[in-house]
Design goal:
The protein has about 200 residues and is mainly alpha-helical. Helix content is about 70%, strand content about 5%. The protein is built from eight helices and two strands; from the N terminus they run H-H-E-E-H-H-H-H-H-H. A hairpin with a 4-residue loop joins strand 1 (about 40-45) and strand 2. Helix 4 packs antiparallel against helix 5 and helix 5 (about 130-160) crosses helix 6. The longest helix has 29 residues, at about 55-80. It is globular and about 45 Å long. Mean pLDDT is about 90; it is low at about 5-15.
């Protein structure tokens, strides 16, 4: 057997299509997102947009599953909620939530998962050092680039607030996001130690 053949045989198999394990992970993490969302919410600001564990759950899903599976998992959660199952904050669900002040945050979650998951995959492939800090940075990137901008836009449109005022209201959610994204990074790093194949994304197409 040639040296090239030996190297090829040692490499993890590259999957070209999702298997049962991928679908199972997507479903389990979507259910986890729904479960964490049902923790009692704390209304904040003039529009009553609540502080919830949704951002923690979205970040955790993205960091653990990567961009593709993470995004699909979050999308599954959003679609099921919009279909009428009361799995959003304060036991809400249905298309009516899109007319509320939280719509922007909700619609931002899949994009945030895509960003955080993609960055997390790059991090996991390139370094083993300071993973918690890098994963925290990936989660924050999703919040900064997607969750907060679209959340502000949603509050401005549906809550009839000027963008500047909506941005000021949004500031109330930043301290909590910092803490929740750090917790997500710590949990994800612990998960990867227990399940190193998950960190190597061997189940992803």
């Amino acid at each position: 057997m040639t040296h090239h053949s030996l190297e090829t045989s040692r490499r993890p198999p590259h999957h070209t299509a999702w298997g049962a394990r991928d679908l199972g992970l997507v479903s389990v993490f979507a259910a986890l997102l729904a479960a964490l969302t049902l923790v009692p919410a704390i209304p904040v600001g003039p529009l009553g947009v609540p502080i919830t564990l949704q951002t923690l759950a979205v970040s955790l899903v993205a960091l653990c599953l990567g961009s593709l599976r993470g995004t699909v998992s979050v999308l599954l959660y959003v679609v099921v909620g919009l279909a009428g199952v009361p799995i959003f904050a304060r036991f809400s669900g249905g298309l009516g939530v899109l007319a509320g002040p939280t719509a922007g945050y909700l619609l931002a979650f899949p994009l945030a998962a895509l960003i955080a998951g993609a960055l997390a995959t790059v991090i996991l492939r390139r370094t083993r050092r300071a993973r918690v800090l890098w994963l925290f940075a990936a989660a924050m990137a999703g919040s900064i680039l997607a969750t907060h901008p679209l959340g502000i836009l949603g509050m401005s449109i549906n809550g009839h607030l000027p963008l500047g005022q909506a941005a000021l209201v949004d500031l109330a959610y930043w301290p909590g996001d910092l803490v929740k994204n750090l917790v997500a990074a710590l949990v994800a790093a612990t998960v990867f130690k227990a399940f190193p194949r998950l960190a190597r994304r061997e189940f992803t197409a």
